[in-house]
Amino acid sequence: MSEEKIDNLLPENNGTDGQTKNEVVENNFEAPIQATENSEEAVVEDMPAPESTVELTDEQVADDTLVLEDATIIATNAINNANAEESEDETIVGRHEIPTKDYEALSMEDLVSELETITDTDKVMSVRDHVEDIKKAFLSKYFHLLDEKREEFNAENQDPTVEFSYQSPLKVKFDVLYNQYKNKKNTHFKNLQDSLKANLENRMAIVEELKELVSNPKSNIPSALKQLAEIRERWRNSGPIPKDKYNLVWNNYHFHLENFYDFLDLDREARDQEFKNNLEHKQRIIARAEELLNTTDISNSFRELQNLHRIWKEEIGPVSREHREQVWQKFSEITKQMHDKREQFFESFKEREKENLAKKQAIIAEIDKLSQEQIESHTGWQQQIEKIEALRNEFFATGKVPTEVNEKTWSEFKDSVRKFNVVKNSFYKEIKKDQTDNLLKKQALIDKANGLKDSEDFAATTPVMKQIQDEWKNIGHVPRKLSDKLWKEFKGACNHYFDRLKDSRKEEIAEEVEAFEKKKDFLEKVRSLELVGNHKEDLDTIKAHIETWKTFGKVPFNRRHIEGKFNKVLDQLFEKLSSSKKEGEMMRFANKLDSLATNDSRKIENEKIFILRKIDEVQSEIFQLENNIQFFANAKADNPMVKEVKKSIERHKDELQTWKAKLKQVNELISK
Questions:
Q1: What phi, psi does 565 have (nearest 5°)?
Q2: For the chain, which residues make up each domain, given as ranges?
Q3: Which residues lie within the region annotated Disordered (predicted)?
Q4: Cys bridge to 635: 153, 194, 513, 639, which one at CB 3.0-4.6 A?
């Protein structure tokens, strides 16, 4: 109802409640007054009032009017209780204007943000239900998260002396906001309690004063009316009283007020006119209530009806006896119809909650199914974890389920997630064992690298360092919290060594360039060498030049072709020298070995492999030739083909001896 319509329903002068004398209860005010949080649990606008269970006789069961009367009383009591609660604490009135959200569907971050926004008000009781719903939703999610973190901790830590600890910044912020709200609410309750007690005592005194006015027959009419006006004015300004005393005090006040009009000898014409005005105002309220039955916004209509009851009771005076019961019954019947519509409205919410229940049960079943799948890889488990996380978010976003199964559904969900976590943690427990073994292996490689990083023997150390790096690559994962630290330490040791190696090679390059220049000049000298014709003297001269060549050292890699040029000059000299071919070849081979050893020790091994392969090939050739000659057993000795085969066998045997001599030199060089 708009403000303008409400104003049109009010009389010019405030009157008394339209309740009958049958609604009067005993004026018993001895009960203590407590304005605590628990004392505020009246019928809330969002929920219907609980129905009472009574024993009925057979006659009462058959009486339809009794059922109607009982339902009407329930509907009216729901209105009266809500008005009583709001009359006690004015900060409650604005609660209906705050939109209700499905807090269970919000994330923990959104819940904290919502709490921060909604508690930023001085009307602490207007947001009470919202705050408690947010608290319930947040804590359920937080404790679920806490259980998961505890299970992960227990799976990773086998030491019973280490206690589980988990800090959530969101929980800290939530606690701060909630405690701030509680402090504001407690301060509000304390101030309200003192005010309610004083207001109740004041209203009780006014009721006694009104009672004395009615019962004093000596009072003259003008004086009584003046005194009544003063009483009514003080009554309107007396402030709120405890809600559990609201209806009691009002009924007693109205009872004595009606007696004033009914039994004192007032001006009949003035009284009848006031009764008529009050009747017209109440009829307008009834008409507006009938209009509300046809509106679609049930919640707003019910709140407006609640306000109409307040106006009826607090703002409008009594009507004549002949209309008093009739108008009240009509207004009560409309109230019952509105209450029934509201009940149907809440039934639609229950259907939605049942749909949410079915969705959540399907999610729980899907989590159970994922828990039973056999996963044997880290990648596979990461995919399962992503699926579970998506199902968890879907569960939280689904919304409310029926209250009677809420705890059961939540418990089943937590059990399903816990079962999944047990299987997952069991897998990663084994992974952790492997990671611990890998950790020991990597730590051993780090110790080895640190021991070699300052080595001066680069030729021997470099292959070892490269092997260490290859081994590191083949070792699996280590615990994540140590991975970066280990890699940094290992990388530091390797970089330290190879930086030193690089610096040493810079020095070697300068030496190699100098060696190349010396060899280039010396090569020209060897080319111009003239043999004297004495075999021994010429051979010693060639050997001396070879030894001199060796003293120059290693040359740059891209200039090693000079070694080939030197060997060609040697070949020419040996051809001029009247020495055996084998002797010259062995001298050239010795020079080659020295060159290989100077440049790259691995090539010595490759040369050995090559020689062994050549030995096998020559031996196979000899075996084949000797086998072939058996076919010429009856041939004459001067047979040209037989002679050729025998010469070939002798050449291969000489070649075999040369290769074996080379192998001996290689082995001697390797063993040094």
A1: -65, -40
A2: 267-401, 581-671
A3: 1-21
A4: 639
Dihedral angle of Cα 232, 234, 235, 239, to the nearest 10 degrees: 150
Of the candidates 316, 217, 318, 328, the residue with the CA atom closest to the CA atom of residue 263 = 217
- The SS3 assignment for 110 reads helix
Contacts of 267 (CB under 8 A, 6+ apart): 221
For residues 454, 459, 464 and 469, what is the CA-based torsion angle, rounded to 10 degrees?
A: 80
151-185 in b/e burial notation, b at 16+ Cβ within 10 A? Answer: bbeebeeeeeeeeeeeeeebbeebeebbeebeeeb
Residue with tokens 């009982």: 70
Rounded Cα gap, residues 324 and 275, in angstroms: 10
C-alpha angle 631/637/642, rounded to 5°? 45
The first and second tokens of residue 173, run together, are 């912020």
pLDDT per residue as tens digits for the range 236-247: 788 777 777 877
Query: Which residues contact residue 488 at a Cβ distance below 8 angstroms, ignoring those fewer than 6 apart?
Result: none
Question: So what's the pLDDT on residue 363?
Answer: 92
Q: Whole-model pTM? A: 0.40
The tokens for 485 are 């630290």
If we measure between CA atoms, which residue out of 174, 175, 152, 181 comes closest to residue 165?
A: 152
Angle in degrees, CA 511, 516, 518, rounded to 5: 95
DSSP secondary structure of 49-110: PPPPP----HHHHH-HHHHHHHHHHHHHHHHHHHHHHHHH-GGGGGGGGSPP--GGGS-HHH
Q: How far apart are CA 424 and CA 597, in angstroms?
A: 57
Q: How far is the C-alpha of 233 from the C-alpha of 197, rounded, in Å?
A: 20
CA 463 – CA 625 distance, rounded (Å): 44
Q: Is the CB of residue 32 less than 8 Å from the CB of residue 333?
A: no
Contacts of 117 (CB under 8 A, 6+ apart): none
pLDDT digits (tens, 9 = 90+) for 488-513: 998 999 999 888 888 777 766 778 88
The two structure tokens encoding residue 546: 């070879």
- The Cβ-side half-sphere exposure at 415, using a 13 Å CA radius, reads 8
Per DSSP, the residues of 114-150 read HHHHHT-SS-GGGGHHHHHHHHHHHHHHHHHHHHHHH
